[in-house]
């Protein structure tokens, strides 16, 4: 494909209608690709049912282009990239659900607006799997006590110390 054809295709390739943009419902930075992300999320969750053990983790997608919300994490192999919070199967690493971090204005967990950010991320990504018998594993960045105290009394479960 010639460069001229590529730029012509790129010029007319759109995923979203700009006239339907509502800043209260959509993340401004992801609005153009939001329909594609929603389609991927629905396909990921419909194709495969995760086994009993699932985990919420963050990963860094390597990105070498220009972007306003690139993260720098020196401990990762790809130090610069887009941060993604994802819900995966523990043994298969199949991504069942995900959300992208786009900076301070990222919309996390509108259902759980009173929680801290880390708890809202976990509750939002794993929302469809809560109360379905899954064992949820978290990394050391998520305050589990805050997450448990906010979710467990709501569902009236019994906790042992």
Structure description:
- With 161 residues, the protein is of the alpha+beta class.
- It has one domain (27-152).
- The chain is built from four helices and five strands.
- It has helices at residues 3-12, 34-47, 117-125, 144-155, and strands at residues 53-62, 71-72, 80-89, 95-100, 135-138.
- Strands 1, 2, 3, 4 and 5 form a five-stranded mixed beta sheet that branches.
- A hairpin with a 5-residue loop joins β3 and β4 (95-100).
- The longest helix is centred in the N-terminal third of the chain and has 14 residues, at 34-47.
- The protein is globular and about 55 Å long.
- Residues 156-161 have low confidence and may be disordered.
Strand count:
5
Number of structural units classed as domains: 1
Q: What order do the SSEs take from the amino end to the carboxyl end, as H and E?
A: HHEEEEHEH
User: What do the pLDDT scores average to?
Assistant: 78
Number of helices: 4
The amount of beta strand, in percent, is: 15-25%
How would you sum up the major sheet? 5 strands, mixed
Over all CA atoms, what is the radius of gyration? 18 Å
């Amino acid at each position: 494909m010639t460069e001229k054809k590529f730029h012509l295709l790129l010029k007319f390739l759109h995923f979203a209608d700009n006239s339907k943009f509502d800043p209260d419902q959509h993340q401004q930075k992801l609005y153009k690709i939001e329909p594609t992300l929603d389609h991927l999320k629905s396909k990921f969750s419909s194709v495969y049912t995760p086994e009993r053990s699932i985990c919420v983790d963050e990963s860094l997608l390597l990105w070498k282009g220009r972007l306003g919300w690139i993260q720098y994490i020196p401990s990762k192999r790809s130090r610069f990239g887009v941060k993604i919070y994802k819900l995966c199967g523990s043994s298969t690493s199949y991504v069942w659900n995900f959300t992208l971090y786009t900076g301070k204005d990222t919309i996390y967990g509108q259902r759980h607006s009173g929680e801290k950010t880390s708890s809202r991320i976990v509750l939002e990504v794993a929302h469809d799997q809560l109360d379905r018998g899954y064992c949820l594993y978290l990394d050391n960045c998520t305050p589990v006590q805050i997450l448990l105290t906010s979710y467990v009394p709501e569902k009236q479960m019994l906790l042992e110390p």
